[in-house]
Amino acid sequence: MNSDIEQILITESELQAKIKELGSRIAEDYKDKIPVLIGVLNGAVMFVSDLIRACPIQLNIDFMAVSSYQDSTESSGVVKIIKDLDRNISGRHILIVEDIIDTGLTLSYLLETLQARHPASIKVCALLDKASRRRVNVPIDYLGFQIPDKFVVGYGLDFRDLYRNLPYIGVLKPYLYEGITGDNDI
Ligand SMILES: O=P(O)(O)OC[C@H]1O[C@H](OP(=O)(O)OP(=O)(O)O)[C@H](O)[C@@H]1O
Ligand SMILES: Nc1nc2[nH]cnc2c(=O)[nH]1
Question: What is the pLDDT of residues 128-172, one digit of tens each?
Fold first, then answer.
């Protein structure tokens, strides 16, 4: 698996140091509230589980699963809810936790969908931002790292549901996905 990685972009210790920093900021900002942290499955699973352990305040967690990439490295632009929240978020302080913001289409859809449920506030925490690829403007309140326009895997991020279990963020060797556009290429 490691031999499919062209370059390690963010090491395990860099990830963990940044998550401690983000956790402290979030804990300070929400110390008088009980926020609901919403992990966006599947990619954010590792990030959200490390982030909540770095956040020593009262909080709730919930998860949504959405997908726009399926088996491709390009967003289809169509976001689909696969699993919705388990709770009513009306009047609650919401923090969306994402692994990566790329085109911004997924987050834009989530913000619109969740805003319609009348939360007290909504903020966004993202581990990675690929700003050069943005197609819609979206706010990021807590950010881990800006990254270049490369397809990355590891620490929750996949290609064809593989590589999520790498403990670092790496760039996948392009020959592994070049020419692949979707399911028909499998
Ligand atoms: O800004 P965007 O271009 O919309 O891309 C960001 C989204 O893409 C990834 O999800 P994906 O659809 O690959 O599902 P996954 O989390 O299950 O891997 C990632 O987890 C974000 O949710
Ligand atoms: N795995 C992975 N998923 C993404 N979704 C949007 N951008 C990316 C990326 O660079 N890697």
Answer: 999 999 999 999 999 999 999 999 999 999 999 999 999 999 999
User: In this structure, which amino acid lies at residue 18?
Assistant: K
Q: Where are the alpha helices (DSSP H) in the chain?
A: 12-29, 45-53, 105-115
> Whole-model pTM?
0.93
Cβ–Cβ under 8 Å, residues 11 and 170: no
Cβ of 50 below 6 Å from ligand 2: no
Locus of tokens 């491709």: 72
Cβ–ligand 2 distance for 100 under 6 Å, the answer yes
Query: 42 preceded by cis ω (within 30°)?
Result: yes
Measured CA to CA, the distance from residue 135 to residue 131 in angstroms comes to 9
Domains in the chain, CATH or no CATH each: 13-148 (3.40.50.2020)
For 102, what's the count of Cα atoms within 13 Å in the CB-facing half-sphere? 16
> Which of 69, 70, 72 should be mutated for ligand 1, with most atoms under 8 A from CB?
69
- For residue 127 the two structure tokens come to 């581990």
Q: Which of 6, 11, 53 is nearest to 166 (CA)?
A: 11
Q: What angle do helix axes 45-53 and 12-29 make, rounded to 10 degrees?
A: 60
Q: Whose CA is nearest to atom 10 of ligand 2?
A: 151
